[in-house]
Specification:
Elements lengths: L1 H10 L4 E2 L4 E5 L5 H8 L5 E3 L14 H7 L3 E2 L4 E5 L9 H8 L4 E6 L2 H15 L6 H5 E2 L11 E2 L4 H4 L4 H10 L5 E5 H6 L1 H11 L11 E4 L4 E4 L24 H22 L7
Parallel strand pairs: 2-5, 2-6, 3-5, 6-9
Antiparallel strand pairs: 1-4, 7-8, 10-11
Helix pairs in contact: 4-8, 8-11
This protein binds adenosine-3'-5'-diphosphate (A3P).
The site of adenosine-3'-5'-diphosphate has 19 residues, from α2, α5, α9 and β11.
Length: 278
Amino acid sequence: DDGYKYTRLKQNEVPVKRLPDALVIGVKKCGTRALLEFLRLHPDVRAAGSEVHFFDKFYHKGFEWYRDKMPPTLEGQITMEKTPSYWVTRSAPRRVYAMNPGVKLLAVVRDPVTRAISDYTQSASKRPSLPRFEELALVNSSAGWGLVPSVVDASWAPVRLGVYARPLRRWLRRFPRASLLLISGESLVIDPAAEMARVQEFLGLKRVITEKHFYFNSTKGFPCLLKSESRSTPHCLGKTKGRSHPHIDPKTIERLRDFYRPFNERFYELAGINFGWP
Ligand code: A3P
């Protein structure tokens, strides 16, 4: 009799809003939208569609406000959201920990040089009068070698955000390494199914998202979806994802590579993963 009642309850279970079990915390322009859209293919994942910005902008509104932003879920379904700025918000690790010390964290990282160009391309699309990338990434050195800009401007946000080591250390001061999955943005493009297998395992999900969900769209140059919850026909991410980048002077690229090399090495060490960026 009790068993019957239990089954009835389950059948009539009403979805309710819950605080997130997992968060995509960053990194901006590394493939965070692709990761979230791919995860939403899973029937046991429900995610807020737009970035909620609770732990950086709206923390003062409180956890009930945050919960209300979440999609309703059934028991056993994972509630998620992605806000890439959490990665670099100093107070975010402490605040996230206060919500749930067992929360699962995901971060996509990508070669900081292409990340910077991607970040710049996004800004330039909104502000066509923006100076060239080369002018913003390099400043004239005061060393006195004259007219050739040679020093990387580490304070320019597109450059600064590619220094991954320091934010990672902040998150790892609060959370055990096993609570954070670092995903290669490059692998997410080259082999989305393999990367999503790791993600599903990390989240304790059955492997439902596989090769069968993806096809490579050669016009877009990115993996796209054959179908999803919202659409039954093949489709790619929006126009703002996978933009073409402007040509950048190779000398500037070289300077940036030299700039990032020691930071990348420190990041690989902390992460325990060599991402192999050039
Ligand atoms: P670009 O538009 O510069 O190529 P985010 O979602 O974090 O803003 O990241 C955007 C980046 O996601 C894109 O930067 C693109 O390189 C990357 N990306 C990864 N997988 C993608 C996919 N399947 N479709 C489109 N963009 C993808």
